[in-house]
Write a structure and sequence with these properties.
heterodimer; A: alpha/beta; TIM Barrel; seven-stranded parallel sheet; two-stranded antiparallel ribbon; 9 strands; B: 322 residues; 2 domains; 12 helices; 10 strands; 45% helix
């Protein structure tokens, strides 16, 4: 299993809110989404486009991957305003059709050429957060080779579209989430796994719940997460990073498979009650690689933050006081 | 086409003579002689050499025999397996129509060369001069163990009329289908229901069980296996794969209507017949409305019980060399 990018925890924030954006790089996020869309009022959207280039640079100082969420109705203007060095990806909430994705791809390709960005370096995320998107998802996921992340199938927008309550004690999105995850796997894309945990509060700042959700997602194979409040970043990272005892156990499984199963011409063996075969070995191997990738990402962010702070100190500027993002 | 009762599909590595011999005594409805995952590459030649003898041993014990081929060695695996006594071929890692058609053509080639026909149900005799039809051709079972295979299930199933059954295979291992906090395997409820739906729409048997344990289903405990089978039957599965001999009884029991099920079905039919005799279109029994549909389901349940019993009886007295 190929290791995906490390994007355990991220924050989404309106790009036109300087308090959020200026402090975003101090939050230890693996990724940050600067929003052009729902959280930016119509009257502020032209301003949002003007400040996008600077915001990408600011938010990226801490080593996080930067994504910009664009408006379904302003694809050309938003893609043009957002695509600058330092941008990792563009996403579109409410992806309803493959044509929209193809249009995004066309504009990105043009901008990459004009601005000297490496061709194909800006990836796309599609969120099928409506029944229409779910029905169209097979075509959407194939609409551009830039589509790396595929999501949706639940959450606020889906609830609104279906006219159902979002915070209930059962999983009301089994079908659309399942369909999205299956299509993503069928076409080699990553899908944001979110296993069902009953949530009737809807709090976006509940650290304990965020940890439980992230840990449950990791157990089910999830590797990514995101939220709206700084409180949830550390718990998500902790929940999605394999604890040392699991890494050690994975090393034992792998060693057992290599030395006691494969080397002896067997297909499976038993280690402390666990049937160990090539699938368990592959799972152990992936966990070890994931733990390594997480450690590398943590190191990268630490170095980036130190360097940014040193630059600011050299320029006699303050990194800013932590505030709610 | 009358469906055969195939509640338990026991997978055994074909090169392990002791396990094959053990499988012949389990009363599994189907024994799958494996040439794929459970056989190390260095043992595959040995496994192929033992295949013909193993097929006869299993068939003579009263179980149907399938072979699980390794898609990387399809020709060699089929060449070693298409002999009298074999009922079908389980194809894992299927993701394209071409794979299914390739298997079909190779299978047909060996069938024609060797005059092999699919054996009749256990206990019945194969007519030597019987003309070849799709009914007596060897079957294919598709093991859809990847995202692509599951997504394209309808067209893969329809790629060959030999395809008679389908399962999620090792999907739990290749698709991150791991335990969720509430016990279900992530994505599994969706995938299982989708498989059941697609199988019914295309007229093949859905094979699987409602595995929930943190342990992998195919090697689960007899108790968990029974619960997975009983729930699976109620969800629409017809039988399930397993890899341990001690799971067979649990699968056979879980996929056979229980005595309580039968009592209830008989009561329903009695109440409905009584209502009809009175000129009514439906009955009320213990506050349950019983109409034509409910009565039909009860009748099918009794038919299944009879078929299960007949299969179990036939396994007690298999016809040598059938």
């Amino acid at each position: 299993m190929a290791i995906r990018e490390v994007r355990r925890a991220g924050l989404t924030m309106p790009i036109n809110n300087p308090r959020f954006v200026n402090n975003s790089w101090l939050r230890n996020c693996d990724h940050i989404t600067l929003d052009f869309e729902d959280s930016v009022p119509q009257s502020q959207k032209p301003y949002a486009r003007i400040i996008a280039r600077e915001a990408v640079g600011l938010a990226g100082q801490g080593g996080a991957a930067i994504n910009i969420r664009i408006n379904q109705g302003f694809i050309e203007a938003d893609v043009t305003a957002a695509s600058w060095p330092g941008l990792s990806s563009l996403s579109m909430g409410h992806t309803w059709s493959a044509d929209e994705v193809r249009l995004m791809d066309q504009y990105i390709t043009r901008i990459e050429r004009i601005r000297g960005l490496r061709p194909g370096s800006i990836t796309l995320g599609a969120a099928c957060d409506s029944p229409v998107g779910t029905v169209q998802s097979e075509e959407i996921v194939q609409a551009s080779p830039r589509v790396k992340n595929f999501g949706g199938g639940g959450g606020y927008d889906y609830s609104m579209q279906l006219g159902v309550d979002m915070f209930v004690g059962f999983d009301q999105f089994v079908y659309p989430r399942g369909e999205g995850a299956l299509i993503a796997r069928a076409f080699g894309k990553s899908f944001g796994i979110s296993v069902h945990l009953p949530d009737t509060s809807g709090s976006v700042a509940d650290a304990e719940r965020s940890y439980l959700q992230a840990a449950a997602n990791r157990k089910a194979g999830g590797r990514g997460g995101g939220g709206l409040h700084p409180n949830v970043v550390e718990p998500m990272i902790r929940g999605l990073t394999p604890p040392p005892e699991e890494v050690e156990q994975a090393r034992q499984v792998l060693a057992f498979y290599n030395e006691q199963v494969e080397a002896k011409g067997e297909a499976e063996g038993e280690l402390d009650g666990l049937t160990v075969d090539k699938y368990e070995a592959a799972r152990a191997s992936e966990l070890i690689e994931w733990a390594q990738a997480c450690a590398e990402m943590d190191g990268k962010k630490e170095r980036a933050r130190r360097e940014a702070i040193a630059r600011q100190e050299a320029a006699h500027t303050s990194p800013g006081q932590p505030t709610t993002a | 086409m009358k469906e055969r009762v195939r509640r338990s599909w026991l997978i055994v590595p074909a090169h392990k003579t002791d396990l094959v011999s053990q499988a012949s005594a389990t009363k599994a409805d189907v024994v799958v002689l494996d040439l794929e995952d459970t056989v190390h590459d260095t043992r595959k030649a040995e496994a192929r050499q033992k295949m013909r003898e193993a097929i006869q041993l299993i068939r003579n014990s009263g179980s149907e025999v399938f072979v699980r081929c390794d898609p990387d060695f399809l020709y060699a695996d089929l060449e070693s397996s298409v002999y009298r006594g074999l009922t079908g071929v389980l194809l894992p890692r299927i993701t394209s129509v071409e794979q299914v058609q390739d298997a079909e053509h190779t299978l047909a080639e060996f069938e024609a060369q060797r005059g092999v026909r699919k054996p009749p149900p256990v206990g019945e005799i194969l007519e030597v001069d019987e003309a070849r039809t799709i009914e007596n051709s060897l079957e294919l079972h598709l093991s859809l163990d990847t995202g692509r295979g599951n997504w394209d299930a309808p067209k893969l199933i329809q790629a060959s009329p030999r395809v008679r059954s389908v399962s999620l295979g090792r999907a739990d291992l290749t698709m991150d289908l791991r335990p969720e906090p509430e016990g279900d395997l992530h994505l599994m409820p969706y995938l299982m229901q989708r498989l059941i739906l697609v199988a019914n729409a295309t007229g093949v048997q859905p094979i699987g069980a409602w595995w929930q344990s943190a342990s992998r289903g195919l090697v689960d405990t007899p108790q968990n296996t029974y619960h997975a089978a009983a729930t699976g039957r109620k969800a629409g599965f017809k039988g399930a794969l397993c890899m341990r001999a001690n799971q067979v009884e649990a699968l056979n029991r879980g996929f056979t209507p229980s005595s309580e099920d039968l009592s209830q079905a008989q009561a329903i039919l009695h109440a409905f017949a009584t209502a009809q005799a009175r000129g009514l279109s439906r009955a009320v029994d213990h506050r349950q409305f019983i109409d034509q549909g409910i009565a039909g389901a009860a009748s099918r349940l009794l038919d299944l019980a009879v078929a299960c019993q007949a299969t179990d009886q036939a396994k007690l007295h298999p016809i040598e060399g059938a």
